[in-house]
Specification:
Layout lengths: L6 E2 L10 H10 L11 H20 L7 E4 L2 H15 L4 E5 L4 H4 L7 E2 L9 H9 L5 E4 L13 H10 L3 E5 L11 H4 L3 E5 L10 E5 L25 H17 L3 H18 L4 E2 L10 E5 L5 H10 L2 E2 L15 H5 L4 H4 L2 E5 L6 H19 L1
Parallel strand pairs: 1-11, 3-4, 3-5, 5-6, 6-7
Antiparallel strand pairs: 2-8, 7-8, 9-10, 10-12
Helix pairs in contact: 1-8, 2-8, 5-6, 9-13
Bound molecules: pyridoxal-5'-phosphate (PLP).
Pyridoxal-5'-phosphate binds next to helix 3.
Length: 373
Amino acid sequence: MDKKHVSYLDYNATAPVLPAVAEAVTGCLSTFGNPSSMHQSGRKARSTIETARELVAELVSASAPNVIFMSGGTEANALALRGLMTGSGCSSVVASAIEHPSVLAHVPRQDHIPVNGEGQIDLVTLENMLRNRPAPVLVSLMFANNETGVLQPVSDAVDLAKKFDALVHCDAVQAPGKIPINFNELGVDAMSISAHKFGGLKGTGALILRDGLKIDADIPGGGQERNRRSGTENFVGIVAFGTAALHASQSLTSTQNITALRDKLESKILRTLPQAKIFSSGSSRLGNTCCVAIPGLSSETQLIKLDLAGVAVSAGSACSSGKISPSHVLLAMGVRKADANCAIRVSFGPSNTDADVHRFLEVWTPLALNAAT
Ligand code: PLP
């Protein structure tokens, strides 16, 4: 764990690299063959990649040949949205208004599916959108939102999609390691995941496809990844991905402790500051995520003060440039801009304990009480 931070509470942004992953990475550096080479070194690299593919497939209950390795969730979303549109002849794409920017970048604003005050899509509107467009439409719906943790009714959307011959892509980047996820049971056509959200390395992810689905490659070339994503494979990243996937498959049972920490934090906040707004708390959501606002106390001030005290949290999704803008997720849920500007996300993970809840509250409560007076 980063020594600078006493309390790391930003697991939805990224998870620390697992010790088992660091060990696997070190151990695999001597395997240098190109997985496409026919000689022994190449074959060794190939079989290591295929083992990792099996582990990733098992994590989401998919079949290994349908797992395409790529550079992360962003690239998986781009391939799904661009490649399915052209490869499967979709007439248009619709997506929930609270998708990650890597999905929304491919979807015109008029094709966003509205969400209710809890952040869940309106299935009646989706049905109308599907009815009024030529089939097949591509629907992109996330499994769990990265800011509020809210879960979407993906199975219901799949049932609707089937009625209208639509395809469904699911951005499940926030799910593995936090909540069980089963590609085959969910019935989606394509699913994106990313290794660094559950202890793998940044820059590795996968798109998982249903058998026989037609998709156009974004990156043509040497034909790696069954012609879906050319380029010599990111061997080290894939080994790390497989190891993290195995760990995530085995450790799902311990998520109850993480939910208990989040619930403790929220009940303590509400006891001291009943005016605090906790978003999506009335819906099914990830057990590790708390998105909270204190009207009048800017996200930026909270982040800076917490960071100075060694507590790492995030605000909204649009802070990659170092500048915080109000969350499009909260705005789509009908939250006032002034309140959205005051929201922070606290996201727990396996390394957290009661001491982290205590540390957060010790720093944050005086700030929040001060803003409230
Ligand atoms: N989708 C969701 C829901 C995310 O939370 C993220 C990352 O924050 C991404 C996609 C992008 O994934 P990556 O960082 O692997 O590109």
